Amino acid sequence: MRIDILTVVPQLLDSPFSASIMQRAQDKKHVQIFVHNIRDYSTAKHKNVDDYQYGGGAGMVMSIEPIASCIDKLTSERTYDQIIFMTPDGEMLDQKTCNSLSLYKNILILCGHYKGIDERIREHYITKEISIGSYVLSGGELAAAVVVDAIVRLIPGVLNDESSALSDSFQDNLLSPPVYTRPPEFKGWRVPDILLSGNTKAIEQWREEKAFERTKERRPDLLND
Ligand code: ADE
Questions:
Q1: Tens digits of per-residue pLDDT, 80-131?
Q2: Which domain holds residue 207?
Q3: Among 134, 136, 148, which residue has the most ligand 1 atoms within 8 Å of its CB, making it the best to mutate?
Q4: What ligand 1 atom has the least distance to the C-alpha of 112?
């Protein structure tokens, strides 16, 4: 998979992909991530990428030209399955969307900044708009990092044990059951006996019950889906 991210603050995307699972996924060539600085595509004298909004009002708007020129260059080189804009008024990200995005070959993600982007970019280039929650971030970069992390870990081979992505919370619309590791007792707090029993069938059943209980208690909406 290839992911191109367009931003005016590329530094914000330095660390999320340079450690742990994301770095390993790139080392193992499961994914290539390219971060493009929109400013490099500005033809303005001072490399401006924003301007005052028509009609007046506070806040600058990201200009159409540098974004269009960056997208035009990338799309002339390959076909993108989706051109995504990160925005709080997009469709809410969930596991189902992550699963389907993880199957694509090439995706492009545009991060917004300032007051927003010229609407014509959304109308003529963007094929999907994603929000990571009902709150406003300073820009789309951290949201893009969330999307990339959530989809890259689903690419076969990225996680050592493929089944560990399948047993994540939200796959099957269930939250994960509680997990424990050594020691079996700490400050008098004991690990449930069943997990120490060696009875794999009973353990599996216990986990299913706990996953259901937890979902019913914390996210009953998932059970109605
Ligand atoms: N940009 C700013 N806030 C955002 C959000 N909640 N989701 C996606 N992109 C954003």
A1: 999 999 999 999 999 999 999 999 999 999 999 878 999 999 999 999 999 9
A2: 167-224
A3: 136
A4: 1
Q: Let me know whether 183 and 142 are in one domain.
A: no
Tell me if 190 is assigned to some domain: yes
**0.90 cut: is pTM over it?**
yes
Cβ(63) – ligand 1 distance below 6 Å:
no
Instruction: Tell me: do 140 and 29 sit in the same domain.
Output: yes
pLDDT for the residue numbered 170:
84
In a domain, 157, yes or no: no
pLDDT (tens digit per residue) in 194-210: 999 999 999 999 999 99
Considering the domain architecture, whether residues 31 and 112 belong to the same structural domain is answered as yes
Going from the Cα of 129 to the center of ligand 1, the distance in angstroms, rounded, reads: 10
| 41: CATH | 3.40.1280.10
| Per-residue pLDDT at 98 | 97
Same domain, 19 and 61: yes
Residue 135 Cβ < 6 Å to ligand 1: yes
Same-domain pairing of 70 and 172? no
Q: How far is the CA of 111 from the centre of ligand 1 (A)?
A: 9
DSSP track, the chain: -EEEEEES-GGGGTTTTSSHHHHHHHHTTS-EEEEEEGGGG--STT---EEEPTT--SSEEE-HHHHHHHHHHHHHHS--SEEEEEEEEEEEP-HHHHHHHTT-SEEEEEEP-TT-B-HHHHHHT-SEEEESSSS--SSSHHHHHHHHHHHHTTSTTSSSSTHHHHTSTTGGG-PPPP---S-SEETTEEPPHHHHS--HHHHHHHHHHHHHHHHHHH-HHHHH-
88 Cβ inside 6 Å of ligand 1: yes
